[in-house]
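Homework-ish question, so no full write-ups if that breaks the rules, but can someone show me the predicted structure for this set?
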Amino acid sequence: MDLPVWIADYALPVAWITVQIVALVAPLMLAVAYLTVVERKLIGYMQLRVGPNRVGPRGWLQPIADGLKLLLKESIFPTQANKGVYIVAPLLSIGPALLAWAVIPFGPTYQTPFGEVTPVIAEVDVSLLFLLAVTSFGIYGVIMAGWAANSKYAIIGSMRAGAQMISYEIAMGFALIGVIMAANTLNIGEIVVAQSGGFWHWYFLPLLPLFVVFFISGVAETNRLPFDVSEGESEIVAGFHVEYAGMTFALFFLAEYANMILVSILTALLFLGGWHPPLPVAPFTWIPGPVWLLLKTALFLFFFLWFRATFPRFRYDQIMRLGWKVFIPVTLVWITVIGVANLTPLRAVFH
Amino acid sequence: MLESYLPILVFLAIALGVGVIALLLNFLVAPRNPDPEKLSPYESGFEAFEDARLRFDVRYYLVAILFIVFDLEIAFFFPWAVVLDELGATGFVAMAIFLGILVVGFIYEWKKGALEWE
Amino acid sequence: MAVTQAIFYLFATVLVVAALMVITARNPVHSVLFLVLSFVNGAGLFLLAGAEFLAFTLILVYVGAVMVLFLFVLMMLDINLQRMREGFLNYLPLGAVIAFVLVVEMGAMLAAGGSGAVVGGDGALGGTEAGNTTLLGRVLYDTYLLPFEVAALVLLVALVAAIALTLRHRPDVKKQDPGQQVRVRREDRVRLVDMPTEGAPYAPDTGATGSKGGEG
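A: Not a homework solution, just the prediction itself:
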């Protein structure tokens, strides 16, 4: 093989891809960092406190300080822990949480002098399927962390989290099937394009039950309040990551917040028209698509934090009941409704 | 088709790399003063007694089996939902029978109390 | 093409090594994790062969569901490793026979139609213009309708069997029935008792009006 050809064929594309990925991951990490500040500030205001306000102007340097502190703290490896699995577990948490972002489109296909450009890392045709496959790895980080630490709280937390995540994954999967039935594609970008037009074309109206089920299942999947029995600080301290400290803990933390943002952006893409403005007329169309997408994502992130400030923690039997006895029947009924409507003139509502 | 997966391969390496680098950095700069008390499993200040790997309720196992069944069902739904319009009424009936059979199973487990978390 | 070949051999090597680790690892949890690794590499091979849907379904179902069940089982049982290893040699003849049958079958497969490309094939469904999932959907609910419905029956059997094997009701457990909670009327819980006042009012000198005791 000729060296220059090799460089042009493989080295340059890979370098270009790496640049793209860094351009995605770096802002994502920053978003995660500032999500923690916003969370603490917001919940602070909801509880009539001010939240963090010491580090930097109005506390805005707080996440930098937190990150540095976690980096400089000792990572503990308990004597009874299974060392290999104990170290791999946080990697298996952060890995899928980042990899899932490879197929998230941030805007429509733009016509540029260099040809068509789509703001997405990997233009995979079955991106939704890829996303489901990758996110199904998240459970391994949780279960392995709990098992490897060899601590009672950790193992109880990981079993709870495991059973909860798989229960809500079913409801989430069925909700996605409704979306696919309406859009007839597994490509997230094409699903968004199928919702073009005003907000009445967005799927949250015809698929309202699925929209609600999807987002609440997303909250449960990320083990956020009110579904956080896996962490339950008042009973099992911190759940599956009770033994982790320093950077090993920080990786779980990053993964959890990256997953929150992922669920929010997915809900925005699949049900809220993604980058489409609410009305396809002048003042709305001036704002570029990606900005709309980020605004919608921020809305769902706000819901995440609002839930946390509002609801008390569910009991475990209530969580399982909601997943299996409420969400799954609701999604099955609505899939049937879409299926029947698809054979009648009503199908226009769903397409 | 394969070209579109190249970025994913690179991304996979970077995603794992981020974690590995973070851990390595921590390993380099953080202090390490292990002592037996610090490294013992946390049990709210008590001495840890008996092995932590306790037996769990068989119910967790049942949830996992039910999950496999429903996950497979979802996998069967994906291609159907994609070609829904091409298939027309035939496809609808095919899936209605499939779903009907599984709803029978779902009602069975519900009535049996398999969905109760006691 | 050379790169895809290289990636193929990478996946294949990791797959084989991981599979070997599955049967040699001392700790059953490590075995399961190596099995997960080999499934992931298997999915990579499917992807190289042009079977997108199969690749992701393999991960979704086997890694996302079946292996989780395995882990749950391993975490639930106190497995005595020493005792499990004792019977290892007893199963060797049976294992050897099964391995031999598998090797013969795979050889027959390769001999019959092994000339196709290992990577980048278009798959048996023909054509790539519509995407793997679409092509699968076109034949699965039409040509292969009967096997598809039989699959539903198999899943139903699995569901019933799992419940029959594992469902145990604990007798002395208290639980809530939310339906019943919602249906409760005030009359079931609260009884209003009308209590007439006895004797003179509480503050006789003011000449106050009758007592409110009856509200009670």
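Now go work out the reasoning yourself. Hint: Chain A has two domains: 1-72, 76-349.
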